[in-house]
Specification:
This protein starts with 9 loop residues before the first strand and ends with a helix. The protein is of the alpha/beta class. The protein has 14 helices and 17 strands.
């Protein structure tokens, strides 16, 4: 009997510059990548090994840089249909201005907004997306299912942080009374989402985190019971923390302690936790995050848009805090692109105390790849290009006018203009080809999001 053919299909990429973002920051000026099924099979200098079987595609990567796919660690997809509003507000004023509109969202709006948010990130090199959705108006439909379905259809790896709010204006919070859930409703909704959608497998495409929104929109009991629920179910935990000076003042006035102390008192520090922003962190706060392994989603553009401040990212990294990058909601980062956050993280942090020593190009790329994988608890699966890891990778085109005169490809990617994506693979499957999505119709998504934005505006105006 003749030996059976190797059933695994292979993609071979050669003549490409490679930044692996592995533990040693290994790079190849001209190397190869072999993808077998949904895994990286081999990587190294020079051409691919001879005699590979079942090669379905060979790619000449001349003029390109291969990196791990970008990993987004904080977002609010629904905000895609409220972009461009309250453009001159700080966080608290911005929330008060927009909550009444957000409280009118429904399932078709959320699905369209998720499609818009995902499309913009995917076409810019994001292979793992994340959404912190916390607005669940009564009678609005299956919002979590709509978001998860949009990510599945787009073909990206995805974490839904099932958010919640139960502290409204009548309880001293910021959201209007009709925009929040009850404590029991929030916990039940979170558990049901975990049970229905969480996949803990190595090559999982969908995971769920428990994610009460923020200290000024949730009760202490929701934090405590939310942490207990998450750990009982074996899922990660996410919330906003230390974003503004107003938040710090709120915590001191209401709880008699700062945000980090408050989170620790409710079980919300640990290596299964990550928080968005963490702009106003003192030395003690950073030490607590490092001691417990608590991660941070750094959102430089949103922090600047809302005048929140400059997060102490260099100090966090020096202390060993896991740090990834986040787009944040597109009502506070209208571009919705994570690859621009590589550049913005580097530039904005150089305005801080460390100045030109704050971050370099390779540190910025690590934030957007391996750092994000650590924050999401998936560093053994994604975030670097290594044999055995999942085949989530991007080929950036760097030989056009925008980048051709920059000799170092990583510098070109981070310091230069946003680079076109020639190919993006997620789980070994193409999502972007020649700078266009192949898993979705961008024009149709643009029309749908425009229509849903107009419908939401009409509903909010008549409320």
């Amino acid at each position: 009997m003749a030996p059976s053919a190797d059933p695994v299909s292979r993609i071979v990429i050669e003549n490409v510059a490679i930044a692996t973002v592995d533990a040693h920051d290994t790079e190849y000026a001209s190397g190869h990548l072999v993808v077998a099924g949904n895994r990286i099979e081999s990587i190294g200098a020079g051409p691919a090994p001879q005699g590979l079987r079942n090669v379905v595609r060979r790619i000449d990567g001349t003029g390109h840089l291969a990196t791990p796919g970008l990993i987004n660690t904080h977002h609010h997809f629904y905000q895609w249909i409220t972009r461009g509003m309250a453009t001159d507000h700080n966080l608290f004023d911005w929330l008060v201005a927009l909550y009444p509109t957000w409280a009118r969202i429904d399932e078709p709006m959320v699905r369209a907004a998720a499609q818009g948010s995902l499309a913009m990130m995917a076409r810019g090199g994001v292979t793992t997306a994340m959404d912190h959705h916390y607005v669940y108006p009564r009678g609005s439909g299956d919002l979590s299912g709509a978001i998860i379905g949009a990510a599945r259809d787009m073909g990206v790896r995805f974490t839904l942080a099932r958010g919640s709010m139960d502290r409204s204006v009548k309880d001293g919070g910021l959201p209007p009374d009709f925009a929040v859930e009850t404590l029991d409703g929030a916990l039940a909704g979170t558990e049901a989402t975990i049970d229905a959608h969480h996949d803990a497998s190595f090559d999982s495409m969908t995971q769920i985190a428990a994610a009460p929104c923020s200290p000024f929109s949730i009760s202490t009991e929701l934090l405590r019971q939310g942490a207990e629920l998450a750990r009982r179910k074996g899922v990660r935990m996410h919330t906003h923390g230390s974003e503004t000076v107003e938040e710090e003042k709120f915590c001191h006035e209401l709880f008699g302690m700062g945000p980090t102390e408050y989170f620790e008192s409710t079980g919300w520090l640990g290596d299964d936790v990550w928080m968005a922003h963490c702009v106003h962190m003192n030395d003690s706060d950073i030490a607590a995050f490092a001691r417990t392994g608590t991660g941070v989603a750094h959102c430089p553009s949103s922090n600047a848009r809302l005048a929140a401040g400059i997060a102490r990212v260099p100090d966090m990294l020096a202390a060993g805090v896991p740090v990834g990058l986040g787009v944040d909601g597109t009502a506070s980062n209208e571009s919705g692109e994570l690859h621009t956050e590589l550049r913005n993280a580097l530039l904005i942090n150089r305005l801080g105390a460390h100045r030109e020593k704050a971050l370099d190009a390779r540190q910025a790329l690590r934030l957007g790849t391996h750092g994000g994988a650590r924050v999401l608890g998936r560093a053994d699966q994604i975030g670097s290009l290594e044999p055995g890891k999942l085949a989530d990778l991007v080929l950036w085109k760097l030989d056009t006018l925008a980048h051709a005169s920059i000799a170092d490809p990583v510098t070109a990617l981070v310091f230069g203009a946003a680079a076109p994506v020639t190919l993006s693979l997620v789980d070994g499957k193409p999502v972007v080809e020649d700078n266009h999505l192949i898993t979705a119709d961008e024009d149709a998504i643009a029309r749908a999001t425009r229509d849903e934005a107009r419908r939401l505006a009409r509903i909010a105006a008549g409320a």
